[in-house]
Structure formats: structure tokens, C-alpha cells
Here is the input.
Amino acid sequence: MVDKAKIYQIPGLEDGRKADEPCTIVIFGASGDLTVRKLIPALYHLYIDGQMPESFRVVGFARRKKTDESWREEMRAGIEKYSRTCNVNDSQWQSFSENLCYHCGDLTDAVAYDALAGRLAKFGDSQLSRNLVFYLAISPSLFGEVVDQLHTNKLLKRYEEGAAQWQRVVVEKPFGHDLKSAQLLNNHLIRHARERQVFRIDHYLGKETVQNIMMFRFSNAIFEQLWNREAIDHIQITVSEDIGVGSRGGYFEEVGTLRDMMQNHLLQIMSLVAMEPPPSLEAEDIRNEKVKLLKSIRKMTPEMVSKNVVRGQYFAGTVNEDARNGYRQEERVDPESNIETFVAMKLFVDNWRWSDVPFYLRTGKNLPHRASEVRVQFRPTPNVLFAAQDNLDLHANALTLRLQPDEGISLRFNGKVPGNSIQTRPVRMNFGYDAEFGAYTPEAYERLLLEAMAGDATLFIRRDEVETAWQIVDSIREGWGEIPLSNREFYAAGTWGPVAADDLLKVDNHLWHTPVPANK
Ligand code: BG6
Here is the structure.
């Protein structure tokens, strides 16, 4: 049983969360980027922070021929290059890496799974060989095959609540490319595992500040009382990236920003911002509320899509003085591609709390800088007292939850400028995580791996969440149909997206809030 009391402590404090039961993590796709850049660095940091179980193993499963030793060396180099500390301590590495081994095999070859079963059995500890986290860092087209093979080799079975030993399957996005494919994928995944054994990752949920959205809302009476249509004019969610598609042109041609970012990260943030308070902090209660919220998002007809959704694609430009190619010139991209690298949209939540409050979401590649934030714009005061004042700079209150980088929260209100006039100016109250808690910035994957080992699914996406999000996204894609991008939908790299995205707000007399660059 998960100890909920521990989860919501401030991480990094002495009595922080720890995975208690011995277990083995088998990573499928051990030669891939995710393993070397994120998974092993996360496990290493959990280890040095004392959060791994006393006894654990990590088995890297992949096709390329490698020895335990050569794989460990690669992983060490990965930590030095990509991890948040870029630093490996020799003696800590020595004791950590003794638990790492490499298993060479083809994902479609039954013999490789038989050998894996033999290897796990040799760990000589029933918990290490039976408490298993299977991490599928591989193409979703192979998920079904791997799960079938694991089942055939008796490595994965449906288990009852409270069983002495457990197996879990952790899967990476994308979960399908539309509702239908997601349903097929989910059906396949749960053929040999119960839903509660499946942990679908959205790495945004592992980010400290994304987790804090819920804590902030439900532990602060002054804000929660205002968190509704009476006080809030609209909400903006921006996730901007200052990188282009880089070497992922091939992937992006299949996916586009709507499916890559909106379907998951932005809709997840929105559901945390807008959901009703759950009856408890249990995973199912929280996820029920998120699903309810997603289901309340107004469905869009093609006509509504043309009014409420803007897509864009970057052309050549400059980001931070760095010249960038246009999307159509990127590697493995069709020179006439109509794939979107930017999406902005206006959504409505048809429930009691949010009726008629617009939620504006936007995300894109090659924007001026990297920043993710939720901006809650409150209603203005009645225009009575100050109506006669010329040049009065009166702003509506706004609350900004800054998710990354420079994580923090700021509240804007009006202050009187000192002096004889009654001039006002917007001022801010700022809270910065670093200043308050020190530079504790665990990677999202640390938290997610820890939770998968501890068996808490709160930060993972349930089947109905994924499928409901696909319904929203599918209706938008249906609205776009085969219509090519128009001139108004292109934007120069290094700008905040196409003009049409500004117009989306202008018609409502709103403006996008421009996130401040890091450390300014
Ligand atoms: C991934 C997307 O899920 O999130 C990428 O596939 C994107 O396209 C990335 O760049 C952004 O994540 P982060 O943590 O850098 O904001």
C-alpha cells in the first residue's frame, strides 16, 4: 500500500519518498536515446539520493551486441554528458553500476525472453526476480509483441491487489496517433496486465511545478475561492520551445505539434488547472477528476475548428541570434509539408465552474525562448472610480504559474506610484522555487521512475484520459482535413507564432502574455 503521507512532502528533505520493495527494472530499448539521456541518469540520481530500494537491478534489453561492462561505460558517459549534475562520483558509480547488466536480444525473438527469465531467476532473491518494472522505451508498434512475449515466458501476469509480487509495464508516448489506434494499443497492453499495472508516461506530470499546480490550488484558500468564472476572465497556457525539430524531422512528419504536445502535455496541464477538487489524493480519485474535466471540454465542429484553432509552421529565421532553417528544409521533411510546428487554440469547459471562460493554449517550436507557464487572468475591477483619470495604467490582476525554467509563481496587482497624483502601476509579488527551496530541480524522470517502483499511478495517465484527449484532438484534425496551410499560418523562427494566433485572442479583446526569458 502506498504511503500517501510521504508523497507530498517537499522532495529532497530528509524524510523524502523512497521505493521500499526490492525490484528489477528491465529497460527495453537500452541502446536508445531515452535510456542514456534520461532513464539511467534518473536512476543514478535516485540512487545517490538514497531513494532506490536497498536491493535493485537494472537490466538493459536491446539488440546490439554489448557486454555488461561496455553498456555501463556508455551509461556513465551519458550521465556525465546529459544528467542534471553532469557529474559522476567514482565510488558511488562503482556501487550503483554493479546493479546494471545488459541483455542482448531481439524484441521479437522468444529465445531472448527465455534467456531473460533465466537471468532474472539467477538473481537469487524472489523479490528481485518477481517484482518487475518493464520499461518500454521502444516504438509503440512493438508494445504488443513485448507484452505477449513477457506473458508467454511467465514474466508478466495479471495480479490481484495485495499480491506478494508484482509486475508493472511503463510505456512512453505516443499512445497511438488517434482514438482508434490508442484503443487498439490499450487493448493489447491490457491483454496480459490489469489497467493498474500499466503506467503511461507523460513526463510533464513528473515536473515539480506541474505537480504543484494541484497543491497550490487546493491548499490555498485565497486562490481556490477565486478559481471560477466569477473571478477569472480567461486562462492562458503557453509551452514554448526555442528548438526546432532537429534530427526528429521524420517523426515530426508523422505527428505534428497537435499530437506531439497538445494531446498530452498541454491538456494534462489544463486538466490540473481546471479540475474539481478530488475527494482524496488517491490516484484514482485524482484521475477521475481529470477525466471529468477533459470530458467537459466543448467538442468542436469543423466550423468551430476554423475559428478557434490556429496552426502554424516555422520558416527560416533567427532564435537567440542563431540562424534556423525553415521546417520544410529540415532533414527528412517533405519540402511541401503541411505539418504544424505550432498550435494555438481556444477551448471552453462546459461545466458550472468554467462556463464561458476561454482557455487559450499555445505551443510551438522555434519560438523566441523556452518557457512554460499558466497565466490566470482575473476580471478587471468595475470601471467606476478611476474612469475619469487620464493615462491610468490600470491592469487586471494576473497570477502566473511559471512551470519552467525559473520555476515560480507571481501575482500582478496595481500599486500607487508614490507622489501627489493617483497614478497606479502594475507591480508583482514573486515567489521563486530556487530562492525558497534552493536549487533542487530533480528531473521529471526521477520522480516518475520512483513512483513506478512504488506503484503509485497518480502521475501516470489512465486509459480513459488518453482516449478522451484523443477525441478532442481527432475532432481538430478532422476540421483541418486536407486543407493546406495558408500564408497566415507561417511564422518566422524566433517569433511567437503566426499572426493568426494573435488574432485568435484579439477578437475577444485579449492579448497573449509574453513569458519572460529565463533569469530576467
Ligand atoms: C516531448 C515532445 O514530449 O516533449 C518534444 O515529443 C518536446 O517534441 C518535449 O520537445 C518538450 O519537453 P520539455 O521537458 O523539454 O519541455
